[in-house]
Fold Acyl-coa-binding domain-containing protein 4.
Amino acid sequence: MAAMARVSSGLAYPERFYAAAAYAGFDGSPDSSTKGVSSKFSNDGALLLYALYQQATVGPCKIPKPRSWSPVEQGKWTSWNGLGNMASTEAMRLFVKILEEEDPGWYSRASNFVSEPAVQVEKNNDTIAEPVTENGNVLPETKTIPAENGNLSEPQDKDVVSEGFGTVGVYDQWVAPPISGPRPKARYEHGAAVIDDKMYIFGGNHNGRYLSDLQALDLRSWTWSKVEVKTAGEASQVQVAPFAGHSLIPWEGNKLISVGGHTKDPSETMQVKVFDLPARTWSTLKTYGKPPLSRGGHSVTLAGTSLVIFGGQDANRSLLNDLHILDLETMTWDEMGTLGVPPSPRSDHAAAVHAERYLLIFGGGSHATCFNDLHVLDLQTMEWSRPTQQGEIPSPRAGHAGVTVGENWFITGGGNNKSGVSETVVLNMSTLGWSIVTTVQGRVPLASEGLSLVLCSYNGEDILVSFGGYNGRYSNEVNVLKPSHKSTLQSKMMQTPVPDSVSAVQNATNATRDLESETVTGQEGNIREISVDNIESEPMVSKVEETSERLLAALKAEKEELESSLSKEKLQTLQLKQDLTDAEARNTDLYKELQSVRGQLAADQSRCFKLEVDVAELKQKLQTLESLKKELELLQRQKAASEQALNEKRRQSSGGVWGWIAGTPPDQQDDA
């Protein structure tokens, strides 16, 4: 399959501009703007390059419009004047850009400079990279021959590569550096972090199996080595389990923190492991507070001295959108309550912190779909918002990786349930404007899910380093991108409300469209004479006015949209106020009813107390009656006994008299 390559200048500005100007024939002499140019460029291109050169070296056009009828002088003045107040640095960058569009291979033919390849390869076992055709021109490149195992072998032009990515450099293109040492096992969903010019890779997923190895890539020699971990000996040391979908964070200059991740035997809560680089031991970080649920595919972002954890997927494959913060000073977990509408539950998204205050969440996926929404959390007010994105909004994706360079957030890779995402994009976090840095072609590791992306410094310049990923094949390849200032400025230019440098260049180019070339050539190689149809600046002015009108119309449309949104918000606020009033009225009625019920309850309690008193008195009287009844029974028994004794005496008395009368002896009477 075809290979992608591009040769570009590696010089920094302004040296890069002066090299391009010297190649184009602008050497600073009075007639340098007309010497040796027509043989290389079209009339429009030559005039535009002249205008940009003047803008970069002299500044805005201050000279009066020439009175001569020379069409060349008229065209030069019109082109230069059309650039307005464009900054010198921007004119330099646009000069190089226009030169590359006119002559893509200029740098390889420039004297006293060495070209350097930027190779992006779609490999099989017997393919050699082919030249790349851009704008109909074939770009020269250094050939790269894939090895049999699918890994890139070293480029044939080893001297160029050995100079590194700092002295020559390739801007805004992914490059496969010359890697040595035993390569790690191919993987995705691993963790990556940079400490002391080394990129550390921990864990990941290979063929459905979780990994637990720790690998290091020396970013100066581009050599892989495995970090030998000491066996756990002390109580604080642990044998770390294989993980995937976790995050790796550098800490205190010599430690790596692994947060969360999927594992074979998940715990109930999120585990935080720490690797001590000097001691080469793993330990479990002792934390306080309530830790989050165990999960993977979440984001972990360092904000000051705190780790901000968002979303992910738990062990039961349930998607989450909760927010937790781990304070690394107190080692305390906090589950944060937020205002506004949070992002929907998701995993495999990207997160970044801007200005130590704003947490940005982009993309991610659910079980059925991928997202390209952007959410912002103010970490001071803890309120979510969903701002309007500007520029070329990226397509939905999940499993992508991101890293910040200043106020720019670079994002690469990811997938959308159909294929890998091929473009590398950058978001200016101040203006929220997107732009595309570069695009790869074919099923290459950079267009895959679960890759890692880190930022490091190489020869004093920032470079992005990607590793691994999965797009149907597991990868263990390393790719490098050096972002140019142009990439940083593009996202800034997206929101300029007045005709910016690009439109100014277009205006200058449009001015040259009114000029028709004549066929006057000479051995000196001067620019051909140009006849004038209309040398006045009305076309340029009309185009500027037309551009202004379009911008004004766009601003009016945006204003109307904002006013409509504001009206909707006001209506919603009024509705909420009415609902609040109704709720307060219902609350008042319920409170009155509660007070009435409380009064009735108090009265019932009083009656109940009186009844209890009466019952107590009746019980006391009943006890008294029982006592009287007993006394009465006793008296009745005593009375009966007394009466019986009295009757007995009476009988005895009566029997004695009659016995005496009857002559009964007293002894017989007693016996009877």
